[in-house]
Amino acid sequence: MNASVSVIVSLIVVALLMVVAGVGHLIGLDVVFGVVIPYVALLAFVVGLIYRMIVWAKSPVPFRIPTTCGQNKSLSWIKSSNIENPTTTGGVIVRMLLEILFFRSLFRNTSVQLADGNKKIAYGSSKWLWVAALVFHYSFLVVVLRHLRYFLEPMPFFVYWMQNLDGFLQIGAPVLYVTGVALAGGVSFLLLRRLFSPNVRYISLPADYFPLLLILAIAVTGILMRYFMKVDIVAVKELTHGLVSFSPKLSENIGGIFYIHVFLVSVLVAYIPWSKLLHMPGVFFSPTRNMANNNRVVRHINPWNHPVKVHTYEEYEDEFREKMKAVDLPVEKE
Fold it and tell me: How far apart are CA 47 and CA 69, in angstroms?
């Protein structure tokens, strides 16, 4: 599908979702968009997550296929890379932590260009994607954790500290949260990269644009709701606390922008288990990351192999020893 068509289709879908929620509020469907849909989305997320994890756990891994970026452990006088090419469980754990917390593999990302009149290939550092990914993911994490104050009473101590640290700029009233702006900026960078990078645009599909536009819409509606289009925060907390205790209470004064925001979040939550966004838990099931490259030390036996009767070399030699000796083939036993 053409890149422009993919973007337009994704944009139309996100816009329709916002219109549906807005119209639903106008015709009095607040219970549907404020209570029923969030519960359904959460159920879809839990069921989908469990299903995908079971499928991943049952997937056969016939070979050890860890990605390697360094020297494998071999002879004692050859220095090996214990993190880039781990041969022990400890090395795998360190590698996984660096990948999950700091996106180590993305840090090594390089750009390739033709130089000197298209006669040479030039490689250069490309760290902007790594920075944008860190900003986006950590901002998203902080925003999600910060929203726990709407669901839990009393508010957890770490949420209080995080909220104070996030709003340290103290610009205007209400306080400007840095992660809210950083989330919108990070997802915008990732979206623009797909739009303006020819190589990335060529391989991008609606499934790549839709989640970015959806998250951007969530960030923008959240910013609008906090700084420009005020909502009844007391009524919002009553509803969120009620959702947690399965006794939701709706108020007419919450505001339509709130239901649009909640509906978009619900769509994202329900969409995650069935999309590329499930790489969050998926990295733990990736054999290219969670396996040690110890083929030279331990023989990897595929646990999914169908049991068959094998003919070992010892048995083969016992059967054909005399014939092998007759044609001067070497044998282990005389």
Answer: 36
Token representation of residue 122: 């030039």
Task: Report the candidate in 84, 70, 186 with the shortest Cα–Cα distance to residue 130.
Answer: 186
Closest by CA to 69, choosing from 27, 37, 98, is 98
Cβ atoms of 80 and 69 within 8 Å: the answer is no
Residues 6+ apart with CB under 8 A from 245: none
Contact 269, 45 (CB under 8 A): yes
For the entire predicted model, the pTM comes to: 0.84
Q: Is 254 exposed, middle or buried (0-12, 13-18, 19+ CB in 10 A)?
A: buried
Q: Give pLDDT tens digits for 217-231.
A: 999 999 998 888 878
Look at residues 63, 50, 74 and name the one whose alpha carbon lies nearest to residue 288. 63
CA nearest neighbour of 225 among 137, 147, 314, 130: 147
Q: Which tens digit of pLDDT belongs to each residue from 86-138?
A: 988 999 999 999 999 999 888 877 777 777 777 777 766 678 889 999 999 99
Give 112's strand partners: 123
Quickly count: other Cβ atoms within 10 Å of residue 64's Cβ: 16
Cα 249-261-32 angle, rounded to 5 deg: 45
CA distance 24 to 256: 9
DSSP per-residue codes, 223-276: HHHHHTS---HHHHHHHHHHHHTT-----TTS-HHHHHHHHHHHHHHHHGGGSG
